[in-house]
Specification:
By secondary structure, the protein is an all-alpha fold. Helix 2 runs antiparallel to helix 3. The chain is built from three helices and no strands.
């Protein structure tokens, strides 16, 4: 993941791990969509809504989907 440095990954990984451990064993695709949307909305709330921020968030979500596909299917 070249888009963030190693220090940022090390800082964020415990948060991801704790969140993942708190999820129920079976999460539906709809629930996953809800979780991602709520996280994006919280990001927007904290940053303030602007065209640039909305563009950044939607771009990050699109790139997330592309990265997941690249890692798992390509």
């Amino acid at each position: 993941m070249p888009y963030i440095d190693r220090a940022s990954r090390a800082r964020l990984q415990p948060i991801v791990d704790a969140f993942a451990q708190s999820l129920p064993a079976q999460v539906t695709p709809g629930e996953l969509n809800y979780l991602c949307t709520r996280l994006a909305l919280e990001f927007l709330r904290r940053r303030g809504l602007s065209y640039q921020t909305l563009n950044d968030v939607t771009g990050a979500l699109h790139n997330c989907a592309s990265e997941l596909y690249r890692r798992m299917a390509a």
